[in-house]
Every structure is written in C-alpha cells, then in structure tokens.
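PROTEIN DESIGN WORKSHEET
SECTION A - STRUCTURE
LENGTH: 495
TOKENS:
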C-alpha cells in the first residue's frame, strides 16, 4: 500500500500526544496515540486532543536532535537567510546544510522530510476535529472554540507549507503555479499539488471561519497563550494578506490582531525571550520542566547558555551590519553583545563578537523555555509595511513610531517615504524578529535576492553560498524522495 508523507499521520489514529510517525504506523498502533473514535466521544476529549496538537509544536519528533517543533522550524528558515551567523570555523556545524542552501534542495535529507511531515501531521489531526466536532455531545460554545482553533491550525499549516514548497505568490497575476496538496479530509489516496492561488483561497477560507467561531472565546489559565484566539487568527490573516500583497487587508488584520495587546517594557526585552506571560506575546509554546526534552529543544540550539555542543562551540551571532546600524539607545542592541564578554555562556563555551543572548534557556542543564510564535511587535511592523505600500506614509510612520518609541526612547517619528520608508521598516523587521523564523520567507515574498556579501563576522567556509538571485528555482523547496515514491500525483519542483 502506498503511503504519502502527509497521509501517514491520518489513517485511523491521531498522534495528539506522540511526537513521531514512522512508516510502520499503518502496521502498529502506538500506545501514545488516541483513536479518532475516542477523540470524538465528548468535547472534553476533543479539547484534550486540541491541546495535543499544540504540544506537537514544541516536542521531539523522530530521532534527529533539533527536530523539535515550530521553534526549530523557525530556526531552520532563518538559517537560510543572512542574519544568523555561525562565527567559528572550528565550531559545531549542526544544520549548516541549511545555511549552504543544501538541505532544502536535497531530496534525501531528513530535515526536509521532517518539516513536510510536521505540518501535514497538524493538518490531519485538525481535520478530525473540523469534520467531526459537530456530532460530539457538549456545549456549542466549546464546539465552536474547538473547530475555530482547528481551522486556524489547518490554515496556518497550509500557509507554512506553500511558502516553502510553492513558488512565490505574485499579487499582480493569477497564481496558477503549483503549490502544495490541500488536505481537507484524511485519505489514503495521494493528492496532487493544488495551484498557489487555490491553496491561498483555502487558507483564507479556513481563517475567516476560524475568526467567526473564535469571536466569543476567552483564553484562561497559565497556558492560555498556547491556545489560538481571535487575535491570533487575525494575526495569521495579516501574515497571509502581507504575503499576497493585499495591503489594505494586511493593515486591517494586523490592527485587529494587536487590539488590546500591549508592548513589553525595555526591562522585559532583555530577560531572555523565554516567558509566555510577557504581555506582548500573543501566541507561544509554554514549556514546563516535565516537558523538557534536553537536546530536542529550540533552546538547545538557539539559546546563549544551554550546555550543548552546538552552543558551546558555535554560539549564534547576529549579522554585524544589523547590530552596527542600531542606535546605542535602542534596547534591542543589548540582546547581542559586541564582544561576547557579558554573555551568560555555558561552562567551556566560546565567546564571539555580536553574540546572541536574546534567547536564554532555563539553565545550562535545562533547555526548557517558552517559545514565541506571535508578538504584537510583528503586527505593528505588518501594519507599517502594508500602509507604506498603500502610499499612506503618515499611517506607516505612526505604526512604526509606536513600536520604535517603545524600543528606543530617542527614536523620532520617521520622515522617510517611498522606498526609503519600506527599507526602514524592513530593517527593523529583521532586527525585531531575529531568530523567530521570518527572514527566508520575507526575502521570498518580497522577491529579493540573498546577499551575504560584506558581512564582517560571516565566514565563507560556513555559508559556502553568498548570492542567490531573486526568483531562482532554489527558493522552492524540493519534495522528499519518500513522498515522490509514495505519491505518484506529486510533481517535483525544478531541480
């Protein structure tokens, strides 16, 4: 029986608590799985299943260290850009294949397969709830909340996939180029790639319905921000609209998403980006020590202080050009250290210029930390960029000023317009969202080239590749060989 990568997780048992799915899944019923029938016995069971979907965003998947959910996926997307630096020639080379533009173009690479499976696993699990929740006994408000979050997960996952495996969305034309399979029902039948336009149409349909269903839902409890509410769903809409160059929609959705959400203080900015209670965080993964998976953690790879080989021998640094361009009064300059002398490194760890201390694990021996997945700052930046594209320079400047006056007390309202204003917004987007997974997709959506030239702390031996033209075939991720073997309906991207 042929099995596609995205179908493996959706046959008869849903891995709400399991972190891996292997090819033998069809032949063995994992004890950590929950059957579809059990999930749909009550709204309480369905809520537990929904929480399990979110747990997949930060738990170990398979046997490869670093395949640890969306935080690590964010790191993978950023490594393909130019702003995360591996500064040492003799340090760890973990995931350097991404920096060299090899991983996403290698049909046999485990990380390529992992990311594809990751999002379709979420989609297949969400489908069980979307398609079955109305028949479940329980309060209608609970069913609306469950279906709304599941729809948001499905829309978000298709969006993550099409940005990587599809060609860039071009708002000036009908996007008939191939995207990714749309999975609305779990099936054993291999699905063909839908067009990019069709994928985005479905994404927006899911998100619009999610926004309607989540309108009356209020998150509560210590893990509330792990759940998706209407603000987060609006944030997804803002991201999608920005990618589609629907500027008015992007600005409106971003403003709606950040409504009622305050920006963090300067003091909070320098505490390590590891606490979901931060007022600015809209959505994130809350981890407690019981959830710790040691080396299978975002903080095991991106923190300054956890005692892992990759951090001791190859601490992460920021592109020196970005750091040098920041005002000395900008609080964000403090989350990287010019000499590395003041960074809380693990025992025996290296110190390097422009060293990262934005992300801090619980300790040198505990890689636990909450992972930010959406913040209000991003919404201000989306609103600013969208209004700049619309020619609303005053509105764009004001949105940027609201954010930047919080980060830098000496920042004054920008006088830029046109391309200069966009360049200013994009610069602050690179700084603000460093390590949060947007640089590769930003370059792709803006049809910009990769340019790693003239970065003083960049080593050619580490990156191997300095330039990739805008629109080059390498901006499309390849489909893994296992998927090609299992699903004859899949058409490979240009090699």
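SECTION B - SEQUENCE
RESIDUE ASSIGNMENT:
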């Amino acid at each position: 029986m042929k099995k596609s990568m995205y179908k493996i997780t959706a046959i008869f048992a849903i891995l709400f608590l399991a972190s891996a799915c292997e090819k033998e899944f069809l032949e063995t019923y994992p004890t950590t799985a929950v059957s579809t029938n059990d999930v749909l016995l009550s709204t309480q069971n369905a809520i537990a299943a929904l929480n399990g979907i979110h747990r997949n965003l930060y738990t170990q998947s398979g046997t490869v260290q670093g395949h640890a959910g969306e935080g690590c996926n964010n790191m993978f997307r950023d490594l393909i850009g130019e702003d995360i630096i591996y500064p040492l020639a003799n340090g760890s080379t973990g995931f350097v294949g991404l920096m060299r533009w090899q991983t996403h173009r290698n049909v046999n690479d485990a990380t390529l397969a992992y990311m594809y499976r990751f999002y379709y696993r979420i989609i297949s699990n969400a489908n069980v709830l979307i398609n079955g929740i109305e028949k479940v006994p329980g309060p209608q408000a609970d069913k609306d909340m469950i279906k709304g979050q599941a729809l948001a997960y499905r829309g978000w996952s298709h969006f993550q996939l099409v940005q990587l495996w599809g060609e860039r969305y071009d708002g000036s034309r009908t996007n008939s180029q191939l995207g990714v399979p749309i999975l609305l029902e779990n099936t054993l039948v291999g699905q063909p790639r839908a067009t990019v336009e069709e994928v985005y149409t479905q994404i927006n349909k899911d998100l619009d319905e999610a926004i309607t269903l989540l309108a009356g839902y209020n998150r509560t409890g210590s893990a509330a921000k792990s759940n998706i509410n209407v603000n987060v769903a609006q944030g997804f809409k803002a991201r999608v609209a920005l990618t589609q160059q629907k500027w008015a929609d992007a600005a409106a959705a971003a403003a709606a998403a950040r409504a009622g959400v305050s920006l963090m203080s300067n003091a909070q900015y320098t505490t390590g980006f590891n606490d979901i209670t931060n007022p600015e965080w809209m959505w994130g993964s809350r981890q407690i020590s019981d959830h710790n998976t040691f080396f299978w953690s975002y903080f095991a790879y991106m923190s300054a202080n956890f005692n892992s080989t990759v951090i001791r021998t190859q601490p992460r640094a920021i592109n020196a050009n970005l750091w040098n361009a920041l005002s000395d009064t900008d609080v964000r300059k403090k989350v990287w250290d010019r000499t590395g002398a003041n960074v809380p490194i693990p025992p025996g760890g290296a110190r390097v210029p422009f060293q990262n201390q934005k992300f801090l694990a619980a300790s040198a021996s505990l890689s636990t930390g909450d992972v930010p997945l959406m913040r209000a700052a991003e919404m201000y930046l989306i609103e600013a960029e969208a209004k700049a594209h619309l020619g609303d320079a005053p509105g764009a400047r004001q949105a940027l000023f609201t954010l930047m006056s919080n980060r830098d007390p000496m920042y004054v309202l920008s006088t830029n317009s046109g391309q200069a204003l966009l360049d200013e917004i994009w610069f602050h987007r690179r700084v603000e969202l460093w390590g949060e997974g947007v640089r590769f997709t930003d370059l792709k959506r803006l049809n910009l080239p990769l340019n790693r030239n003239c970065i003083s702390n960049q080593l050619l031996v580490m990156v191997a590749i300095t330039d990739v033209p805008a629109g080059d075939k390498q901006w499309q991720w390849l489909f893994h060989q296992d998927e090609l073997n299992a699903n004859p309906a899949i058409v490979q991207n240009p090699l």
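SECTION C - NOTES
The mean pLDDT is 91.
Residues 287-369 form one domain.
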